[in-house]
Design goal:
alpha+beta, WH1/EVH1_dom, PH-domain like
């Protein structure tokens, strides 16, 4: 059963709220984090939301045709927020126990991947109804980048299936292909595992 359709709100005869909550999917953490680090992530996600997938990333923003690092490290999660009835991309700083970046997925949201840089997903951050800036998620792991993209694609497909056609997402204006060949700029193992006891 897909985790992406809206959660039913029909009350059950006995313990309806508990049963609805029990049907929620479990939190999914990052394979690059240990179990203690993933538990810290789940605490930050909160009780009224679920992490559908998570990964260690850098947040990038386009700047005159090239990338600039906006956040040097964090854990991104595709969050299904039941209280706000919406999906979000949230980057958590698990050591400082805070949300470092929060982005509500808009209608027809899609992320773009690149064969020449498999650790990168990019999309447009629309602000105030106008074209926004191009945002990049630079993943520590190619595997997690592919898995994250798969979750975003499934969510998009489910949205298209369940909704009437709406305003399509804005076309993505990407930095030049030559600017995509950068490497991950911090040591994941040094940043996370060595600081948590």
């Amino acid at each position: 059963m897909s985790v992406y359709p809206p959660t039913p709100t029909i009350p059950m005869m006995h313990g309806g709220a508990d049963r609805r909550k029990a049907k929620r999917p479990p939190n999914v953490g990052s394979r690059e984090l240990n179990s203690q680090e993933n538990e810290m992530l789940f605490q930050l996600v909160g009780p009224d939301a679920v992490s559908l997938t998570a990964a260690v990333v850098q947040l990038l923003k386009s700047d005159r045709g090239s990338w600039r690092v906006e956040l040097p490290h964090g854990v991104v999660s595709l969050v299904k927020d039941y209280a706000q009835r919406a999906y979000f991309l949230r980057i958590f700083d698990i050591l400082d126990e805070r949300v470092a970046w929060d982005f509500r997925l808009y209608k027809a949201f899609q992320a773009q991947s690149f064969p020449q840089c498999r650790k990168l997903l990019a999309f447009e951050q629309m602000e105030n109804g106008e074209d926004g800036v191009v945002v990049g998620l630079n993943f520590f792991s190619e595997y997690e980048a592919a898995e994250f993209k798969e979750h975003l694609d499934r969510r998009h497909a489910q949205e298209r299936k369940s909704n009437t056609p709406g305003r399509p997402g804005m076309p993505l204006m990407m930095p030049s292909a030559g600017s995509l060949s950068f490497t991950f700029l911090f040591s994941h193992s040094q940043y996370f595992s060595s600081t948590i006891r």
